[in-house]
Amino acid sequence: MDDEVKREIILEHYQNPLHRHKPEKDGYEKVNTANQSCIDNLDIYVDIQDKIIKDITFTGEACAISISSTSIMIQNLIGKTVKEALEYIDNFDKMINEKEYNADLLKDANVYDNIYKQNSRKSCAFLPYRGIREILAKYLEE
Amino acid sequence: MNREDFPMLKNDIIYFDNGATSLKPKTVIDKMVDYYENYSANAHRGDYDISYKVDMEYEKTRDLVAKFINAQDKEEIVFTSGTTESLNMIATGFFANIIEPNDEILITTSEHASNVLPWFRLENEYGCHVKYIPLDSNYHVTLDNVKKAVTPQTKIISLAHITNVIGDIRPIKEICKFAHEHDIFVVVDGAQSLPHIKVDVQDLDCDFTAFSAHKMYGPTGLGVLYGKKELLDNLEPINLGGGMNESFDSPMEIILKDVPTRLEAGTPNIASVIAFSESINYLNKIGMDKINERELHLRNYLVEKLVKIPHIDIINLEADSGIVTFNVNDIFAQDVAYYLNKYNICVRAGNHCAKILKNNTNVNNTIRVSLAFYNTESEIDMLIELLKDKDKIMKEMI
Ligand SMILES: Cc1ncc(COP(=O)(O)O)c(C=O)c1O
Question: Which residues of chain B are within 8 Å of residue A61 when distances are taken between CB atoms?
Answer without folding.
Answer: 332, 364-365
